[in-house]
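Can you make up a protein sequence with its backbone structure tokens?

===
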Amino acid sequence: MWSTSLLRTFSKSQRYIVDNGEELFSAPGYSRWDLLTQWQIADSMEVNLALFNVTDKNYWESNSVLGFAADNPTLPLLAEAGFSAVVSFNYSF
């Protein structure tokens, strides 16, 4: 038996933030596509495949960059991972 899901995640952009006259980084909004597939080989065996951020978009979770200056050089390092894939095999006994 097969099952497949295509998921889309939306996030609204963070509002403009200023602290003591200094402009802080405001995480822009984003949308992300994930593809999840499961194959039930037998009652006790299954294979899973997950493709995350299929379009390989750069985005930031607002909690990860809260309080950072807008010109902080480490901001690109705080972006979420681009495209990634996970394959797993499960066996129950």
